[in-house]
DNA sequence: TCAAAAGTGTTCTTGATACACCCATGC
DNA sequence: GCATGGGTGTATCAAGAACACTTTTGA
């Protein structure tokens, strides 16, 4: 079946910048292209939007198909519409960014997506199309948003230590933070619940584990509370 | 000429939320639809993206065609891609928002766009499609952005008084501001240049006129300066 | 002389920053 | 017993918030 239109139409795609956090580093998930153009090059997961699915649905579907990731935090980022960003034809891409808990998804993704690989954000390979621009925009968004919305927890396991949280913020913001001030502030919100467990990890004092209380955050937000790091 | 594609494609449009400021009120420019669907209803200016123009170009072209506005501040907002947002077929719309100096553009727009009209943001009519959602998103963006970027000046004439500026911020943020604190802070940036002129407006003390020094702002920004109201 | 908006400083409170030592564990 | 990261409090400084009266003009 073919479809006729009076005027030529741009093709519409979605692309996803998937962030993960591991070994105190911020990472991005890339896939190696199997087809031309840019065959063999690294690129963002993504693909064409079907005519009967929302943009969000399209992004989640492509993410599942190409990387095996499901149920992740996903948000629209920006729409890239330069005329010649794809050498084949006019393609407009609605870029998204996703945050995944690497500890959960690591194994799964490895099996479903043989040609997917995590790269430290500071050591990305050359990317296909204008995907380097998209990654830059996503990083800027993440750096901005993490300051006033508690989205960082999407990158950590459900139970985490304050040091892990601090290292996450340091990795995202690319800046060192004072340990005492960080703990004072982040505990001051009353959104981190200490667990009875501790993390025994190596030859030093075990660390208190916390979980983020998302319900409490939602309630506070409705009453005008403002998370701000 | 007709265009054949293997898969059905969404149509791609741009829509613009145009903000203006007049009589201490924030206003939005709407056009009355001449054609079905929603014939006679008020809607955002916008239209189809051509295959050889960027999204930004498309938004500016539609704005000029439908409202006579040119050389305005324009930024991409969000892309709306719900499946049934247009009753005719699948239409994905890249929404933008624009800020115009009403004093400059008022007369011009009135002639070029007979069916365009400014509405106070608090008294908008029912809008076609999902345009009410788009306006809400644009207002939220404006409220957020005006706090940390000096975009408010795009809504004021080149020469303005501090009271005008304060009323603008109050209208956008929907909150009252303390006069002395506002002036202290905004003058503290050193980006408002007092002019030799004053504004004689009615039976009260004349007000000092200022202009915003955009060049100085750009230089400061490069050195890490942060505008924050 | 009155109404109406312009203009101007100080005090208090709050949040941000800077900073150094003891603790619990594994080797 | 020592190396490693975990955990804690205070003093200083800067920015934000609250607040009331005088000035200049036109009618």
Tally of individual helices of chain A: 6
Distance between the termini of chain A: 54 Å
Radius of gyration of chain A, CA atoms, in whole angstroms: 20 Å
CATH architecture of the largest domain in chain A: Alpha-Beta Complex
Give the proportion of residues in helices of chain A: 25-40%
Number of strands of chain A: 10
Unreliable sequence segments of chain A: none
Strand-residue proportion of chain A: 25-35%
> For the report, how would you describe the main beta sheet of chain A?
7 strands, mixed
Annotated CATH topology of the largest domain in chain A: Nucleoside Triphosphate Pyrophosphohydrolase
Greatest interface and its residue counts? Answer: A-B, 29 and 29 residues
Shape of chain A: elongated
* CATH C-level label of the largest domain in chain A: Alpha Beta
Summarize the structure.
Chain A is of the alpha+beta class. Chain A has helices spanning 55-67, 102-112, 131-148, 162-173, 179-188, 214-222, and strands at residues 3-5, 11-22, 25-32, 42-43, 46-48, 73-80, 91-99, 116-120, 192-199, 207-212. The A-B interface holds A 2-12, 48-56, 76, 78-79, 81-83, 90, 92, 94 and B 2-12, 48-56, 76, 78-79, 81-83, 90, 92, 94.
């Amino acid at each position: 079946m073919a479809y006729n239109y009076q005027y030529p139409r741009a093709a519409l795609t979605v692309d996803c910048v998937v962030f993960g956090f591991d070994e105190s580093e911020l990472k991005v998930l890339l896939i190696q292209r199997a087809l031309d153009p840019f065959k063999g090059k690294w690129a963002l997961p993504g693909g064409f939007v079907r005519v009967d699915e929302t943009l969000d649905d399209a992004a989640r579907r492509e993410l599942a198909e190409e990387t095996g990731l499901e149920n992740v935090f996903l948000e629209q980022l920006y729409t890239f519409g330069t005329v010649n960003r794809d050498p084949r034809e006019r393609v407009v891409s609605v870029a998204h960014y996703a945050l995944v808990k690497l500890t959960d998804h690591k194994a799964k993704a490895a099996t479903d997506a043989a040609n997917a690989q995590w790269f430290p954000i500071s050591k990305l390979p050359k990317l296909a199309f204008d995907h380097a621009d998209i990654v830059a925009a996503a990083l800027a968004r993440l750096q901005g948003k993490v300051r006033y919305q508690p989205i960082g927890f999407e990158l950590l396991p459900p139970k985490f230590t304050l040091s892990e949280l601090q290292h996450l913020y340091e990795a995202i913001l690319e800046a060192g933070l004072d340990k005492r001030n960080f703990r004072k502030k982040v505990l001051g919100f009353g959104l981190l619940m200490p667990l009875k467990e501790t993390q025994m990890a190596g030859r030093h004092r075990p660390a208190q584990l916390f979980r983020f209380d998302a319900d409490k955050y939602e309630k506070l937000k409705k009453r005008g509370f403002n998370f701000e790091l």
